[in-house]
UniProtKB/TrEMBL annotation:
GO terms for biological process: L-ascorbic acid biosynthetic process. Keywords: Metal-binding, Zinc. A divalent metal cation binds at residues 13, 138, 188. Belongs to the SMP-30/CGR1 family. It comes from Truepera radiovictrix (strain DSM 17093 / CIP 108686 / LMG 22925 / RQ-24). Residues 11-247 form the SMP-30/Gluconolactonase/LRE-like region domain. This is SMP-30/Gluconolaconase/LRE domain protein. Its cofactor is Zn(2+).
């Protein structure tokens, strides 16, 4: 796996490819910055409050999920707060993903090991708690046929699959499809492939693991950074995996990596919150 750019991120996260602009975005959570890689160049497009995760909005803006608010960012302008969020036991927002209907599933990190959870943000900006009981709600993805939703509980080191109803945006029938061993690192961010398999980052594990839909490990992709945080598909043919990392051991710590995996990813949806 090759380095795309050595961004020296403190905690790189949430890589997201913009097909309209042909560029890659990501957040450095602990650095309080948002980054863009476009046309071979790297720039910082935001500096301010920590951004735990973000989505691409249908109007081209970015929807930022920060510590205790949701904000809108147009590149080149200041972020505008859309609504404050003050959920009991919440430390900050973490990984997020846009749903097919434009709503957003948003994970949180809890102030304790059980006060984090998963929330749904409606088109009107309403915030509904779906469940709690975790310290760190992490990587998510929709199966290509939209029958299943994957979610990562980093605290328990488990990856779960839910039955998903795209008409109602409801989750049900939760089942564990993978339990990580202590020595392989912590499951973190997740990227879905078009064939239904998925890639899961391993924080403190120096790798991306390729899983079958049922959780079986198909392949291990080594990364020259111990703290591998997330992955996303992108590139001209949507067959490149872009990987974020954090500071720690490894020559590529804090860098963004990329690697052609030989098959295409599933295109991420765009949010339409408060448009």
């Amino acid at each position: 796996m090759d380095i795309l750019v050595q961004a020296n991120c403190k905690l790189g996260e949430n890589p997201l490819w913009d097909t309209r602009e042909a560029c890659l975005y990501w957040t450095d959570i602990d650095g309080g910055t948002l980054h863009r890689f476009k046309d071979g160049g790297h720039d910082v497009i935001y500096s301010g409050e920590k951004v735990g995760g973000f989505t691409l909005q249908d109007d081209g803006s970015l929807l930022l999920f920060r510590v205790r608010d949701i904000a809108r960012l147009v590149v080149g302008e200041e972020a505008v707060v859309l609504r404050e969020v003050d959920e009991p036991g919440m430390a900050r927002f973490n990984d997020v993903i846009a749903a097919p209907n434009g709503e957003v599933f948003a994970g949180t990190i809890g102030a304790s090991k059980t006060s984090g959870g998963l929330y749904r943000v409606g088109l009107d900006g309403s915030v509904t708690k779906l469940f709690g009981g975790t310290g760190t709600a992490n990587g998510m993805g929709f199966s290509p046929d939209l029958s299943a939703f994957y979610w990562t509980d980093s605290t328990a080191r488990h990856i779960y699959r839910f039955a998903y109803d795209a008409d109602t945006n409801a989750l049900s029938a939760r089942e564990r499809v993978y339990a990580a061993a202590e020595d392989e690192g912590t499951p973190d961010g997740l990227a879905m492939a078009a064939d239904g398999s998925f890639y899961s980052a391993r924080f403190r594990g120096g790798a991306i693991l390729h899983h079958a839909p049922d959780g079986e490990v198909l392949e291990r992709l080594a990364v020259d950074a111990q703290n591998v945080s997330s992955a996303a598909f992108g590139g001209p043919n949507f067959d490149e995996l872009f990987v974020t990392t954090a500071q720690g051991d490894g020559a590529g710590a804090g860098a963004i990596f990329h690697h052609k995996v030989g098959h295409k990813g599933r295109l991420e949806f765009r949010s339409r919150v408060l448009l």
